[in-house]
């Protein structure tokens, strides 16, 4: 293989959209994408600080740094009348980026909290299972309550009957029927 020959690149497994996102962006697109996130703003602030140091020492802005700076009404960053005007414009750029940070950071915090809140909710399958068990438990509770009321009313009827019977009989003993314990107890009415 000679130095001039090239190794053919294999076709990537990326989708068309993913390949487009890997293509180089224009300078304004790069800056605009960085303005959309707090991390991007921090990166832009770092680049503006580097550009400020560069401008203080040379009085000019390098071509690499220009792509991270805003276009001020179409004026070139190297077209300022003096070094002080350039530094003032860079300070204005830094102040503009700093002004954008708080609302963007608050929006990102709200989005992160919303994602955390939605992640804390169980999935549909789990909720369906909980609902099924809850429905089953409620039905069982209603059945038990109904049975309890039946037993209480039966015992009340027995007490009423045995009370009337004791009044008639006087000293006679009577049996108490207890459904939960199937033994009869003879009670003397003395």
Count of discrete alpha- or pi-helical segments spanning 4 or more residues: 6
Termini distance?
Answer: 120 Å
Q: Main beta sheet, described?
A: 2 strands, antiparallel
Q: Please state the structural category.
A: mainly alpha
Shape: rod-shaped
Beta content: under 5%
The spatial strand order of the largest sheet comes to 1-2
Radius of gyration based on Cα positions: 42 Å
Low-confidence stretches are: 1-24
SSE series: HHHHHHEE
Describe this structure in words.
- The structure is a single chain.
- The chain is mainly alpha-helical.
- It folds into 2 domains: 16-120, no CATH class; 130-188.
- The chain is 65% helix and 4% strand.
- It has a two-stranded antiparallel ribbon.
- β1 (173-176) and β2 (185-188) form a beta hairpin.
- α3 (38-58) packs antiparallel against α5.
- The longest helix has 46 residues, at 124-169.
- It is rod-shaped.
- The N and C termini lie far apart (120 Å).
- Mean pLDDT is 75; it is low at 1-24.
At a glance:
This protein is mainly alpha-helical and 190 residues long.
Tags for this model:
mainly alpha; 6 helices; 2 strands; 65% helix; rod-shaped
């Amino acid at each position: 293989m000679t130095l001039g020959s090239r190794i053919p690149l294999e076709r990537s497994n990326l989708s068309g959209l993913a390949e487009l996102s890997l293509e180089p962006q224009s300078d304004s697109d790069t800056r605009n994408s960085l303005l959309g996130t707090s991390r991007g703003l921090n990166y832009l602030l770092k680049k503006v600080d580097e550009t400020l140091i560069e401008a203080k020492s040379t009085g000019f802005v390098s071509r690499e740094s220009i792509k991270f700076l805003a276009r001020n009404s179409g004026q070139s960053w190297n077209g300022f009348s003096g070094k002080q005007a350039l530094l003032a414009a860079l300070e204005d750029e830094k102040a503009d980026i700093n002004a954008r940070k708080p609302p963007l950071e608050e929006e990102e915090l709200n989005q992160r909290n919303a994602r955390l809140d939605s992640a804390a909710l169980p999935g549909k399958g789990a909720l369906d299972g909980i609902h099924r068990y809850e429905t089953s438990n409620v039905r069982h509770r209603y059945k038990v309550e109904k049975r309890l009321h039946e037993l209480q009313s039966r015992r009340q009827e027995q007490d009423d009957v045995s009370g009337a019977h004791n009044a008639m009989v006087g000293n006679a003993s009577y049996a108490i029927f207890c459904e939960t314990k199937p033994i009869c107890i003879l009670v003397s009415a003395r």
